[in-house]
Structures are given as structure tokens and as C-alpha cells.
Design a protein that fits this description.
16 strands; 36% helix
Amino acid sequence: MSSIGFRDSSVVIIETSRTVIRGGLGLHELLRTPSIEIQARVGLRAQHAFAEGNYSQRLSAGGSGEAGPSMSNSRAASAAPQPYSLKVTDYLVGPQLDDALAAGQEITVSWPFADGQINDFMQAEALWKYVLFTGLQLRRVQNESPVLLSLFSGLPRDAYERVGQIFFERFNVAAFSILDRPMAQLYAAGALSGIVIDIGDTLTDITPIYDGLPLSGARTIAHVGARHCERFLAHLLRNNTSVTAVLAELAVLPAEHPAALRALARQVWQAGLVRVPVDGMAVREAEDEGVTDIAAVLVAGKEKAVIESGMKRRGTAKASAAEQARAKEIEALDLVTVEFRGKEVTLGKERHRFCEPLFDRNLLNLGRGFAFDEHASPEGGGMPMALQDAVGHAVRLTDVEQRQYIWHGLMVTGDVATYVKGIAPALQSHLSTFILSNADQHNEVQPKLIRIIKVPEYFAEYREKGDGLAAFLGSSIVAKVTFHDGKNFISKTDYAERGPKSVLEMSASLF
């Protein structure tokens, strides 16, 4: 147990998912959102990208190959081995990689975390190094910052040891702790038991958690994600006359239509213009009855929105009958106008069908003609199941007496949850077959309801972000406790005395 304490301002949070890495420096009274976010990919220029060589021969001879990582192309998590002389500094990361790809340079792109493992530790080191020393501008020589790293579940114990070795020996951190990412997400909602549905690009990680412990044997991966929804929406937009007219006006070639429609679909959902119906029922906000709870408004930080809403109502009251009729028509059609490549495009209710592929795998075939971007993360494996079936499957793998507690904490997170509201209620509706149809029936095993949990609104910085940043928030909450209690982290002195295995002993979620 370490007696060292750290200033909140020096604590570093790094959240690592399959496709995104987020980081932040300092813990504040109002926990803040990450200050840096990059895609979890690295690039290698052509002169470094040898498929074989001395390193390959070394592997064939039975060497460990630790000094030279494997390389992956744009459609795989990792691929052919690299020359033994490859260095961390050879990899392009963040804006440097983005600029090189935009310039059309010959770059081999790798996603070392894409399949839920760390397939290449040198590539992982390049990413974390960028976050620490470029993004957060720390100094390796005088690094006084403790680091809490949240990682996806399911890694072998030696992988955790290797990660700790990188942070102490390569980054010279003052202290280190690891937290399972699903646990961080559940902590953000203030719960210890539940089921975390983390919707990624092409895969959805489903992790049941009971009494603060991830149930690794029940963890399920569904082969469906945000990019499948994006591809489906692009398919629907082909039939929008406003969209087709704009593509013709922009002189977009037919062969380039899929890429343009994907870009428009991505712009639409990331602009927060998608609203998910609950089992086919239109989602409507509660009607404003003209009574305002001032205290509730102030606590929620919505005073500006209420003032603007009142001004809008007064303005509408003064509008002519024709203008009001037109406004009602637009509201009924649910039209929205967006700017796409300098042109205005009008979209209708089809945009709200964005999430349908999550619940109906038959719809995935409709977007087959819209291939993923060349440098996108690989599609990966996972079970070919609809989201509600995968969640039910995961819960069935848990002990019977645990299930009602797990069902009382349904949490939907992931990048898509930052922009698209209503996914959790829609999933709750599709899971109705797993609860008692008659609430009067007595059953100690089967739950009477499935309860949705989410990030509380009193986290002001996260209020407008949905639940997509739950992992970073949960990591920040844990870090506030961890680096003051002296027992759930390993200091530099502890590591020097006991070595990499101490990382497993001192990180709370790895006991």
C-alpha cells in the first residue's frame, strides 16, 4: 500500500476503446469532458511497411518479436510482421496521420485495438505516447502525473503487465492504475449492477455486471454497430428527391454516390437530428402546460432554453394564419434542412429510421452496396444477432439469482449515444419478452421491469453529451478516489520493487 498522495490537477485519465482514445489532465470540482480525442489508429509510410524481412525471420526462428510489432492494413486489425528495426516514432498518429491520408500519401493504416485485444504493443505505445506528450503536453523527464487507464474487458493478465511496463518504463508515470471500461461506464450512472451495451462502429460489446464485478463469462459481442446504421440511412437517402437533386447539382458521379450518401448520413446523425421511435411509436416531448418550475429549470441549467421557447411562442402567436399553417405542416412532415457541401438539403422522417438495423438484422442487407471507407476500422467478428437478442443471450449466461439485479441497470452507451437520443427506451421496448407480462404474477427470478440507467444530469459538463462519454466520466470518478486512498494504484517505487506483476495486484478491477 502506497502512502503517496497526488494533486487532483496532476491526474491523467486515458480512456481506450476499440476505435477511439480520449484523454484529460486534471480532476476538477465539476468533472470535465476529455480535452483530447483521437482515433485509435496508426499509420506507416511505404518506406517502413515491409511485409517480410529480418523480423519475420526472427519470428520463424521462435523469437518473441517484442521489439518489432506486427502491422495491419486498413481492413484488418493486424497483419504481416514488420522489420525488427521499426520504432515507435515511425508511426503517424492523430492529425499527422489524418493530414497524410488527406494528401493521398501511401499509408498503411492499423487499428491495434479493433478486435478487443492489444494486437500490437508498439502501435498502442505510439497512441498513448501521443496522448500524453503531444495532446496533454506532459514531459517525460519530469512526469509527476499518475495515470488511470480504462481498457476494454477480456484482456489476458500478461497484457495488463505489459501495459504497466509501457507506462512506467517508457512514459515514466508517477503512478498507474487500470480500470475495466464497462465498470467505468456503470459507475458513471451510479450503479454497481447492470448490463452495459457499448455500441461501437461495427461491434457492440455487452457486459453484464453484478455487485461491482464484470461477469466475463457472460460477455457478448454483437456484430452490429453505428456504421451499419449509417450505411442503412445512406440507402434510404437515395430515395430523397432533395438529396438526389443536390447530388446532380454538385455533379457527383454515380460511382461516387455511395461515399457522398454515407458522408451525408454521418453528418445527419452526428448533428443530433435523429430521434429513435420507441417500438414504432413517435417520440414526442411532453406538452408544455404553461407552468414553469423555476427551481427545476435552474438546477437543470435550462433557463436559456426556456426563455427562448417563451419568445418563440409569443412570436408564433403574432404570425399570420398562413404562416402558422405552414409551420404546422412542416412540423407534421418533420422536415429539417441541412447544409451539405455548400448546398441545402431537406430531409424528412426517414432519418429517424437510422437505428432500425440494431433491432432488425434483415435491414443490414439493404446497405450492402455502401462499402465502408477505405481507412475505416475493420468490421470484426461478433455474433450475428439483433441487439435485443444479444442482450438477452448475455443475461441468460448469468446466474439465475443475479438476473433481476442486472435487468435493473440497462445502460446504453458508445459514441452513437452521444448524438442519438432514445436508443435505450427503444431497446427496453424490444426486451419486453424478458419481463413478466402480468405485473401481479409473483416470480422471484423473472423481473417485473427493465430499468434504464444513465449519466445523472447533475454532471453539468456531460449534460448535453448523452451517455457516450460515460467511460471517461466513470474513470474520472474512480480516479478521484483511487489516487487518494493509497491502495488501488501502484507507485513508481512499488513498480521498481516488485515489477510488472504489481499492476495486477494494485488495480482494483483486476483483483
